[in-house]
Structures are given as structure tokens and as C-alpha cells.
Amino acid sequence: MIRKLHAVIAQWTVVVPVASLVLLVLTWHRDVPGWVVAQVACFLGAAVLAAVHHAEVIAHRVGEPMGSLVLAVAVTVIEVALIVTLMADGGDKAATLARDTVFAAVMITCNGIFGLSILIGALKYRVAVFNAEGTGAALACIGTLATLSLVLPTFTTSSPGPQFSSTQLVFAAAASIVLYGLFVATQTIRHRDYFLPVTPEGKILTEEDHAEPPTNRATLASLVLLGVSLVSVVGLAKGVSPTIESAVESAGLPSSVVGVVIALLVLLPETIAALRAALRNRVQTSLNLALGSALASIGLTIPAVAVASAWLPGPLVLGLGPSHLVLLSLTIAVGTLTVIPRRATPLQGAVHLAVMAAFVVLAINP
Question: Can you give the C-alpha Rg of the chain in angstroms?
């Protein structure tokens, strides 16, 4: 019976990514009726679940923290490609798209996924335990990169408005890619043990306690299908965005809500994978996914848009407004206080979710 169930899951996770990609090709840049949009939404959700499955297969084969890194980078690379494409098509109205997307990703990962993972882990196992060395290093990089890329443009004077000059933009892009590269090297090579799950007693868990790792062939197949699933997720999310935009406009909400909704859809694979890890008492894996996604979003998006700005027609606005500056500062401060004790109760998870709720409320009602 169990073998039959595994066979059904394996078939489903192969068929769904391919079918989603075919649907994406058929609907790309086309006006489709409401019933087709409903189908797109269904395939979007199925593609998210397929992506989570294949990411977990890869993570089981390569181990932590490399498994978390694969999913975070894969999602972000596709997200960056989508941002650059939308900016190329949007002109002046897309000037703040990179800023809004990166900031939404930071808020969702550092407060939403981070808070939910801690809350679930602490509720089920009394306290959520993690490695402060690795988590603190990731949080420090996020704070530095977010400040260099999103805060400084608000206060620089070389260019009018919250924009970098060409020299400043090159510096921000170079700093982002260098720091992100150093973080990846630290996470995967030099101090890999800082990012491994730990027991309540502080013992590092180097091996998983479940089934045998998949074969190389199965892992390679999952890697390909993960890419197909993520392309489908991002592409189908873009496909349903006009419907979301119409709904937001009809409801009289600001356009920034659309960016939050799209970011939530794109980050669904990481969210589900992180929550499932927290349920297995692997909170460090959950935090690797959350903070790694935030770092990848900044470390890859800023250099990409810096290069693209050379040929994009519109301006590039990166500086955050006052309310977002407050939320970013609060996120870093609260995250630091959460990480230092190496363990957290449901209260800390609720605090992060409160900051996330404030971000959503201000997006709806600035």
C-alpha cells in the first residue's frame, strides 16, 4: 500500500510541473476568460506543492544546509528574471518595482516565514531551538545589504529623489554580490555546522532519521522538475496578476497590494517547505529557508537591476519611505533579540507575525 502511494505521488509530481508549464505557454501574454484564470490558479497551487516535493527530495540527497540553499536560490533567480522583464515592459511606472519586491520578500521571509516557523516549532516542542551562529550571521548580512541597497538611497544627495547615482549603484551591486557569495561559502563550506539543525541540548544533527537518500538519477530528475515547477509558479503568478490587479483596483486598495500578493505566491514553495521542517523539529532548516531567501532576494536582485538599468528606459528608485524604514529597523532589532538566546517560545514567533501583520496593514492602508 505504501509503495502504491509513493508511486502515485511520484507520477503526480511529474505530471503537474509539465502540465503547468504547457498551460503557462498557452496563456502567456494572452487575455483569457475567468474560467481559464480559475484553472491557472489551481495549477499554480499544484505547481507549488510539486516544487516543495522536489526541493525536499534534493535536500534529502545533498543534506542541509545545501538543500535549503537550492530552493532559495532557484526561486530567487526566476523571481529576478521576472522583475527585470516587468521593468523592461513597464517604463516609468515600474521604477519602484525592484524596491517593492525586495522589501516585500524581506518582510515575508524575516517576519512571516520566520515567525510561523518559530511559532509552530515552539507550540509542538515547547521551545524552538536553532543555531545562533548561523542564524545571526544570516541576519547580520540581511541588515547590512538591506541598509546599503534600500536605506542609503533615501538619504544620498547625488541624484534627485530616493535614487542612487551610477557610482553608488555599482558599489551597492558589488557589495551585494560579494557579501552574498561570502555568506554562501560560509554556509556550505567553511562553517557548514553553524547551519545544521540542533537538538534541545545543543547537539548538532548531521543526519536525517528517515528513509534512505534518493539515487543520483532521482535527484537529477527532481532538480529539473523543480526548475520547471518554479518557472510555472512565477509565470502563472504573473498570469493571474491582471485579475489580482483588477480586484485590488475594484476594492479601492493601493497598487502596492498587488506586489505583496505576487510575492506571497512566489514564496509559497519556501513557506510550505519551512513549515514542514518546523513540524519535524528542524527549525534551523526553516530559518535557513527564510533568511536564505531574503539574502538571495537582495544579493541577486540588486546586481541584476543594476546591470539592467543601463538599458532600461525608466528610472530606478530603491530608497524606502519612512514607514518602511521603521518596519525594517524593527525587523532587524526583533530578529536579533530572537536569535541571541538560541531558542524561542511561541511569544517570539507571535512578535514577528505582528510585524508582518503591520506590513500588510500598511500596504493596504498606507
Answer: 20
